[in-house]
């Protein structure tokens, strides 16, 4: 009976996503059905309470990251960067810089669909077509998601807080596809803008973009789960512009400082907060999730205040209140959806674990593609790698395989969850909300399925090789 309720709940969730185009409505139906189907109401309290705690942490991070950006944007902090992009002779270079490097940097700092939401209108303002402005930021938002939002998909989604075997496998599964991604972006750009790419001429630059990203990404990932995407986006951008952009278009060193010092300030405050607060938690009685005192979302807010003080901004309180209202107006719907999904996930974890383990046990030779596709599907439905990992991670962690290591399987699930962001309907809707142009969701998904298919095929091949030769 419980399995039947779970299946109907998922069908309702999919109806909300595909037919009604309202993820929150599907999530509300699924959550309500599971609650009504519980035999013992007392068993609802802990999962729902944990769902509220997890949502509060995620909501604080999303609020802080978006408020920080809004404070910078209101002060026209990115004006010089806009001028820099407009001076480029190659629009393909603009695509790589904005979608691949800046998108990865913002994903590493904020995540949860925010990078594509910020980059899409900027691309539109620079003269790209609406469909290009939507598809390319979403397609590029793949590799970086594995360590997005300061490692949130790993820390909250899978309970992994430091580098180890699982993180190493994640780096290996993503590095080769990451080298391919600039070529994929160039291909999508050629199709959506209907322009021809001179592949022999551009291949060196595109391969260079991949290498400039992958090297700092891989090295940083060996030491921390919080900063690989942010550091790869930032360092990779500087390397790429310095090496592959014509000298006459290369900005001075002061440009990089003026553009990025608020984020460097944030990272400095974050490291300080982690050093001082790491290990301190608020503990509840029973099985409720502990709340760490170290909250990156609060650091974002504090960094924004420090930025305004540095700028000697007048009417500080009024300005913060205005931007806070603007931020809340943009994020309250996604956070409400996240709340419904997290509570749903917490309630169905035991049943879902049983279903997944049964499926994997009955089809052991198909474990690699099943887990990879499950990750993509989880992110596609929930709109978040963190939510996908929360939904499916426990079933993988408790699945015993004689031939496949659990860290590798988790890395494969995690990679699928990251890549699924490119076709997540929630992310597509969020990006479309800031473009306000008639671009059909089916067209966006069909283009980005190319990215997802190529990426996951490479990742699964790497997983097979790791199993064979480990």
TrEMBL record:
<feature type="transmembrane region" description="Helical">
    <location>
        <begin position="444"/>
        <end position="467"/>
    </location>
</feature>
<protein>
    <recommendedName>
        <fullName>L-lactate permease</fullName>
    </recommendedName>
</protein>
<feature type="transmembrane region" description="Helical">
    <location>
        <begin position="404"/>
        <end position="424"/>
    </location>
</feature>
<feature type="transmembrane region" description="Helical">
    <location>
        <begin position="109"/>
        <end position="128"/>
    </location>
</feature>
<comment type="similarity">
    <text>Belongs to the lactate permease family.</text>
</comment>
<feature type="transmembrane region" description="Helical">
    <location>
        <begin position="368"/>
        <end position="392"/>
    </location>
</feature>
<feature type="transmembrane region" description="Helical">
    <location>
        <begin position="48"/>
        <end position="71"/>
    </location>
</feature>
<keyword id="KW-0812">Transmembrane</keyword>
<dbReference type="GO" id="GO:0005886">
    <property type="term" value="C:plasma membrane"/>
</dbReference>
<dbReference type="InterPro" id="IPR003804">
    <property type="entry name" value="Lactate_perm"/>
</dbReference>
<feature type="transmembrane region" description="Helical">
    <location>
        <begin position="253"/>
        <end position="273"/>
    </location>
</feature>
<dbReference type="GO" id="GO:0015129">
    <property type="term" value="F:lactate transmembrane transporter activity"/>
</dbReference>
<keyword id="KW-0472">Membrane</keyword>
<feature type="transmembrane region" description="Helical">
    <location>
        <begin position="206"/>
        <end position="223"/>
    </location>
</feature>
<keyword id="KW-1133">Transmembrane helix</keyword>
<feature type="transmembrane region" description="Helical">
    <location>
        <begin position="7"/>
        <end position="36"/>
    </location>
</feature>
<keyword id="KW-0813">Transport</keyword>
<feature type="transmembrane region" description="Helical">
    <location>
        <begin position="229"/>
        <end position="246"/>
    </location>
</feature>
<feature type="transmembrane region" description="Helical">
    <location>
        <begin position="166"/>
        <end position="185"/>
    </location>
</feature>
<dbReference type="GO" id="GO:0015295">
    <property type="term" value="F:solute:proton symporter activity"/>
</dbReference>
<feature type="transmembrane region" description="Helical">
    <location>
        <begin position="331"/>
        <end position="348"/>
    </location>
</feature>
<dbReference type="Pfam" id="PF02652">
    <property type="entry name" value="Lactate_perm"/>
</dbReference>
<comment type="function">
    <text>Uptake of L-lactate across the membrane. Can also transport D-lactate and glycolate.</text>
</comment>
<feature type="transmembrane region" description="Helical">
    <location>
        <begin position="135"/>
        <end position="154"/>
    </location>
</feature>
<feature type="transmembrane region" description="Helical">
    <location>
        <begin position="293"/>
        <end position="310"/>
    </location>
</feature>
<feature type="transmembrane region" description="Helical">
    <location>
        <begin position="83"/>
        <end position="103"/>
    </location>
</feature>
<keyword id="KW-1003">Cell membrane</keyword>
């Amino acid at each position: 009976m419980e399995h039947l309720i779970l299946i109907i709940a998922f069908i309702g969730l999919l109806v909300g996503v595909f037919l009604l185009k309202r993820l929150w409505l599907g999530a509300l139906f699924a959550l309500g059905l599971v609650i009504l189907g519980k035999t013992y109401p007392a068993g609802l309290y802990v999962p729902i309470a944990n769902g509220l705690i997890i949502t509060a942490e995620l909501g604080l991070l999303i609020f802080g990251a978006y408020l920080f950006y809004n404070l910078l944007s209101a002060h026209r902090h990115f004006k010089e960067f806009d001028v820099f992009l407009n001076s480029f002779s190659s629009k393909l270079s603009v695509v790589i810089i904005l979608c691949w490097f800046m998108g990865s940097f913002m994903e590493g700092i904020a995540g949860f669909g925010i990078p594509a939401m910020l980059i899409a209108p900027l691309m539109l303002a620079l003269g790209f077509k609406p469909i290009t402005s939507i598809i390319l930021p979403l397609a590029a938002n793949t590799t970086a998601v594995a360590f997005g939002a300061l490692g949130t998909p790993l820390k909250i989604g899978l309970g992994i807080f430091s580098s180890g075997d699982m993180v190493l496998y994640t780096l290996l599964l993503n590095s080769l596809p990451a080298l391919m991604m600039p070529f994929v972006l160039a291909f999508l750009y050629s199709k959506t803008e209907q322009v021809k790419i001179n592949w022999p001429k551009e291949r060196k630059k595109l391969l260079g973009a991949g290498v400039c990203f992958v090297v700092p990404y891989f090295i940083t990932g060996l030491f921390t789960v919080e900063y690989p995407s942010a550091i790869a986006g930032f360092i990779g951008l500087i390397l790429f512009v310095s090496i592959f952009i014509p000298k006459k278009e290369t900005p001075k060193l002061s440009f990089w400082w003026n553009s990025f010092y608020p984020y460097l300030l944030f990272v400095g405050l974050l490291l300080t907060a982690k050093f001082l607060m790491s290990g301190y938690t608020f503990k509840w009685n029973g099985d409720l999730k502990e709340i760490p005192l170290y909250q990156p979302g609060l650091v974002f807010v504090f960094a924004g205040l420090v930025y305004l003080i540095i700028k000697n901004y007048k009417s500080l309180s009024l300005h913060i209140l205005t931007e806070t209202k603007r931020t809340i107006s943009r994020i309250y719907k996604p956070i409400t959806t996240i709340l419904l999904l997290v509570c749903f996930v917490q309630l169905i974890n035991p049943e879902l674990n049983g279903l997944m383990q049964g499926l994997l046990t009955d089809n052991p030779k198909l474990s690699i593609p099943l887990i990879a596709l499950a990750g993509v599907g989880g992110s596609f439905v929930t709109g978040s790698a963190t939510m996908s990992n929360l939904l499916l991670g426990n079933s993988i962690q408790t699945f015993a395989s004689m031939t496949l290591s659990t860290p590798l399987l988790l890395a494969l699930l995690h990679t699928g969850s990251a890549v699924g962001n490119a076709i997540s309907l929630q992310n597509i809707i969020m990006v479309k909300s800031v473009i306000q142009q008639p671009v059909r969701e089916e067209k966006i998904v069909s283009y980005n399925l190319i990215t997802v298919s190529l990426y996951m095929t490479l990742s699964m091949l790497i997983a097979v090789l790791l199993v064979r030769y480990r």
